[in-house]
Amino acid sequence: MSRLQDKIALITGAGSGMGKAMAERFAAEGAHVIVSDVIEERVTSTVEGINAKGHSARGVVVDVSNEEQVAHMVQEVLSQEGRIDVLCNNAGIMDGMQPLGDTSDELLHRVLGVNLFGPIYLTRAVLPSMLERGGGSIVNTASVAGLFGGRAGAAYTISKHGLVGLTRSVAAEYWDQGIRCNAICPGAVATAIGMGSATPNLKVTEMVQKLSAAHGKIGQPEEIANLALFLASDEASFINGAIIVADGGWTVL
Ligand code: NAD
């Protein structure tokens, strides 16, 4: 029996990196995956790759920072697929490594809009149908920057700390109604995310590079997808409100 047999899984930021690896892994484990991303070509290529292997996926182009688009996508999925068993709030952007003093309101709103308000909008939109059905699993991609300073700029660090708080709140508020909500905090993973600016702040960049160089291990998106699969599946039935670090041991040193 596949680990997500016949589950409907909605994954944001699924056109690249960890979200794409999750989409491929979940589909290979029997899920029907809704591949959601803001970049259409990425959606198309992820969906085509999954379906070419005989697995099941379809795509939706959505900007998670736009509440109206999110609500529309969720309604459309519920009317077409009938339910959402698994939600992965994975879409995220970097902040150009800007320290707080150099962080404009525009940058703060942009980064919080995608990394924090996106998961809030998605979770609020999906919860009523999960509650009605008596359960569901939500997996948030946070970051070690959600637990420590010095792993990114201010806006990103604030957004990921907020996402950890969102995870714990949802887990505490709905555990008795069958909802599990957990977060993954990856360390450095080889993806397309970059620094979020062509001119990142040098001081913060050097601080982050120094901290990572001391450890030096870079993860692969599939290593995060393995953990997301476990958390999404019924194998993790007793795991709720957990904030799980997956960083190859970077932050233990
Ligand atoms: P990635 O850039 O390869 O993938 C992120 C995807 O999100 C992209 O396809 C992008 O188009 C999409 N996206 C961006 N803005 C969006 C929006 N407004 N609406 C919908 N989709 C949007 O990066 P990744 O590293 O795979 O990032 C996945 C998650 O992992 C992010 O939340 C990121 O913050 C987090 N993370 C990454 C690392 C790392 O080292 N790569 C470490 C810790 C946490």
Automatic annotation (TrEMBL):
One matching Pfam family: adh_short_C2
GO molecular function: oxidoreductase activity
Sorted UniProt keywords: Oxidoreductase
InterPro entries: NAD(P)-bd_dom_sf (IPR036291), Sc_DH/Rdtase_CS (IPR020904), SDR_DHRS6-like (IPR051122), SDR_fam (IPR002347)
PROSITE patterns: ADH_SHORT (PS00061)
Keyword Oxidoreductase: yes
TM segment ranges: none
CDD domains tied to this protein: SDR_c
Family per similarity comment: Belongs to the short-chain dehydrogenases/reductases (SDR) family.
Xref: PANTHER family: DIHYDROANTICAPSIN 7-DEHYDROGENASE
Protein's recorded name: Short-chain dehydrogenase/reductase SDR
Species name: Thermobaculum terrenum (strain ATCC BAA-798 / CCMEE 7001 / YNP1)
